[in-house]
Amino acid sequence: MSDTYAVADSIHVLQVDDTPLLDETVEFPDGRDLDLLTLTTTDRADSALERLEDDAIDGIVAADDLPDRSGRAFVDAVRERDSDVPVLLLTESESVATDAVSNGATDVFRRDTAVGRGDLLANRIRLLVEHHQSTAIASQTRRRLTELAEQSNELLWVFSGDWTEIQFVNSTYETIYGRSVESLRADPTEFMTAIHPTDQDRVIQAMQHVSAGDAADLEFRVTRPDGEQRWVRAEAQPIVDDGTVTRIVGVSRDITERKRRESERATELDSSDTPVDAVPDLFYALDENGDLVRWNDALATATGYTDAALASMTLAALFATSDREGVRQSIESAFETDETSFEADLLTADGSTVPYEFTGGRITAADGSTLGVAGIGREISTHDSRQQALEQQNERLDEFASVVSHDLRNPLDVARGQLELAKMEHNSEHLDAVKRAHDRIGQLIEDLLTLARNGEAALDSEPVPLQTVVEQCWQTVETGDATLELRTSAVVRADPSRLRQLFENLIRNSVEHGQTPHTERQEDAGEQRATTPRSQSQGAATDLTITVGELDDGFYVADDGVGIPADEHEDVFEGGYSLASSPGFGLRIVDEIVDTHGWSITVAESDAGGARFEVTGVEFETA
């Protein structure tokens, strides 16, 4: 058979049955076009095998007892000719159904179920064919990508999120590291033994950052088994799935020759009559490739890196990720126009950022050739930097909201639709678990969108009666048998919709945490959270009283539930923190709303031993 696959606009099904159940007028449950299905029907196995040889068949529906051959013998004959084509066997025999898949059938379907329900039968074979086609395309794509990777001079690799498994690596590993691909697969940590001892700590720190969700770009030395030392530049990118780094993809390249040229250029740039260490500002010199080759003590002091560490770092690694492209363009401008000026956040060894203004100019040799760029950097006020960061943040929030709305909601809607189809064919508790997972993902998407919108929308304050907004929230939140006590009639100045969202989240938080929790550690994030049993957490709390009261300069929401441990009071407003099975963004949203209003929020223990959230700095509206 050909190894070229594509998902077809129509499916050609070969029906082998002396009492066929499918016809051309069958309708698919999901409203698919009827033209999708093309049928060829025969009542004999021999005729079907001839059709398989002559025609392009996408799938086969066969009875388990044909006039000239048993269903099992027919499947054996099919597999001798085609090992991949999906075969759906119709049977009413439990023994045949039990053995069918292990003997070559792709799936089985009860004949008595299919009688009168040709739509279900047609949909099952369609799903089998589409799955087969998708799998074949994925396999073909992977094979072609592997072939392409083997033609590359760069080292391409994929690790698991915790670096314990090498999922893909091309043979360039053997060229650069002097070790076999098989040895790396057997011991994924083998490459670390080749890294120069001076560089190992930096490499380990970079690996940890990538496992935590950040990209990395660094240079280091490796020593081959024959003693030859080479320079390598590695770029790593985390692949995040449902908040967890599941894979790390990267590319490494041999930069030994470039490093040799840099060393030669640095010698030319380094002149004894240039006392750069006496300059109080940062001094930097770049070679013709834009790589850092010289600096003064002020740069090492400002960044916290040693001279040895700076010598092995890329220029991009000295700046915040959001500024790196702008820095690259500014340096290119210096080569083209002889000078440059730009602002960027310098990234220090401890991960903090400091805003700087950099200027620079092109350096030329006696013969007029370009040696590089040199200049100084001066720390600037935080005001300008914060304004720029705010503008960049709002741009990222716009992009984020767009991605969440389209790229996450659409696949979720498709998954929900497929789940409904599956529930039409099967009644399984596993499908109920899938539905709960879909609902949780949907809630997480809504919470993330709320966070983004709270960060970018303007505040529209007006007088808002607390009693009214709390009573409205009580009607929209699932509170079960919980009881509300209102101890305030105050009117505050606030954005009505955001204040309502604040109370909805605080009330929901109390209701969801109204049962006794048990502790569960989330190993990937290294955090601990308390959860309730599924049977409890899905329902509303019972015998719970929630009180909304007034403070001298604000209000509080308290309950008599299980409370929050004192050592976790500072953590509850962090994104992802949860004491229940919810996504864990509810209190983060509350914190964002409070911050947007210019208020403050703290968590404490209520008089009844539960949780008490106090919001202060609130402006009251007086008559």
From TrEMBL:
The keyword Transferase applies. Residues 529-540 have a biased composition (Polar residues). Residues 403-616 form the Histidine kinase domain. Keywords: Kinase, Phosphoprotein, Transferase. Residues 216-267, 340-392 form the PAC domain. InterPro entries: CheY-like_superfamily, HATPase_C_sf, HATPase_dom, His_kinase_dom, HisK_dim/P_dom, HisK_dim/P_sf, PAC, PAS. This is histidine kinase. It catalyses: ATP + protein L-histidine = ADP + protein N-phospho-L-histidine. SUPFAM superfamilies: ATPase domain of HSP90 chaperone/DNA topoisomerase II/histidine kinase, CheY-like, Homodimeric domain of signal transducing histidine kinase, PYP-like sensor domain (PAS domain). It comes from Haloarcula japonica (strain ATCC 49778 / DSM 6131 / JCM 7785 / NBRC 101032 / NCIMB 13157 / TR-1). Residues 518-527 have a biased composition (Basic and acidic residues). Its EC number is 2.7.13.3. Signal peptide: none annotated. It is an enzyme of class 2 (transferase). Residues 141-214, 276-338 form the PAS domain. The keyword Membrane does not apply. It holds the Pfam family PAS_3. Residues 12-126 form the Response regulatory domain.
